[in-house]
Amino acid sequence: MNQKVSPESVTIIAEAQVKEMSLRVKLLLLASAFMVWWPLYFSIKPVSGWLTQAVLGLAPGTHLGEAVAFFLYDVPKVFLLLILVIFGVGLLRSFFTPERTRDILAGKREIVGNVLAAFLGVATPFCTCSAVPLFIGFVEAGVPLGVTFAFLISAPMVNEVALALLLGLFGWKIALIYMATGLAIAIVTGWVIGRLNMERQVEEWVYDIRIAKTAGLETALTWSDRIDYAWQAVREIVGKVWPYVVAGIAVGAAIHGYVPEGMMAAIMGNQAWWSLPLAVLIGVPIYSNAAGVIPVVQALLGKGAALGTVLAFMMAVIGLSLPETIILRRVLKPKLIAVFVGVVATGILMVGYLFNAII
């Protein structure tokens, strides 16, 4: 005996079939896009050289020729790297909403929480601008103060943009060094602040406020939805950072083409003890992100600057910026801000001196 199928069931089946077809189409498009990305990425160097010399008529070895070649090579390379890596991390981010991140960290033992918070900071979409709402949300969820700081340091300092650019420009060893040292600074800073019992140095209104649960991503997203989310992340992040990328590469190109190697080696080399503190002091007031500062780092290293000094400069720009401390003043009292800046700066200096000594 035939059973009747309700119109609702037909609709559900039809929607499922459409989603399945949509996922297949998206996967096919992704495969096609990667097949285009791969040859494009490896053709950047010859094309940039041809544009510089044959089209623009600039001789190699001249100041202007070297600067323009650097710019034409780095701009497409950086953007192709950003698109690929941000899309991949966007898929990962679709599993981590702010709510879920707070739930994971709440109630953990301090040392476990510090390590977990630092690693979560690498994979979550938070930056300096998110410092205040994130801090409030973590306090409300019962996350210890030290664990909160481990996350807030790791999230902007060790992010997918920095790792992608370092990997593409300098190789996996430098990228791994940067990630390891950044995580170490975040974990140790969280531990130190947790040991100091400075909860009273948080503004009172933070403990009084009650934030409604925000609606994050749904936990039951399909893979089609996650692909859409990852592509949206690419559009949003690249849309926000592209001016920093172009500006950073332009500065790097100027340094690469015009700044004498001897001068840069003298200022940021490992011979002078004061070069590291100076690099950190220079980096703190600069407002930039990894996309903007790493092309500058590339040019500095090319001119003979010491790796430890350059890493310290980059970490100061990304993880210890003046705008971040100003934003955090809304929720922290000056004493805790001073401790935060002091501990992070000390960690950055130690990392810089260590790598200048061993590399």
Per-chain topology:
Elements: H1 7-42, H2 44-55, H3 63-93, H4 98-105, H5 110-123, H6 131-140, H7 145-157, H8 160-170, H9 172-195, H10 204-208, H11 223-258, H12 261-268, H13 275-283, H14 290-302, H15 307-319, H16 322-328, H17 334-358
Task: Summarize the structure in words.
The chain is mainly α. It has one domain. 77% of the residues lie in helices and 0% in strands. The chain is built from 17 helices and no strands. The protein has helices at residues 7-42, 44-55, 63-93, 98-105, 110-123, 131-140, 145-157, 160-170, 172-195, 204-208, 223-258, 261-268, 275-283, 290-302, 307-319, 322-328, 334-358. Helix 3 runs antiparallel to helix 11 and helix 5 packs parallel to helix 7 (145-157).
Summarize the entry for a quick read.
The protein has 359 residues and is an all-alpha fold. The protein has helices at residues 7-42, 44-55, 63-93, 98-105, 110-123, 131-140, 145-157, 160-170, 172-195, 204-208, 223-258, 261-268, 275-283, 290-302, 307-319, 322-328, 334-358. The longest helix is centred in the N-terminal third of the chain and has 36 residues, at 7-42.
- The mean pLDDT is 75
Strand content: under 5%
Q: Return the structural class.
A: mainly alpha
Number of domains: 1
Q: Considering DSSP H and I runs of 4 or more, what fraction of the residues is helical?
A: over 70%
Helix tally equals 17
Number of strands: 0
* End-to-end CA span: 80 Å
The unreliable regions are 210-218
Q: Please describe the biggest sheet, giving its number of strands, its sense, and whether it closes into a barrel.
A: none
Give the overall silhouette.
flat
Q: Gyration radius, to the nearest Å?
A: 23 Å
Order of helices and strands: HHHHHHHHHHHHHHHHH
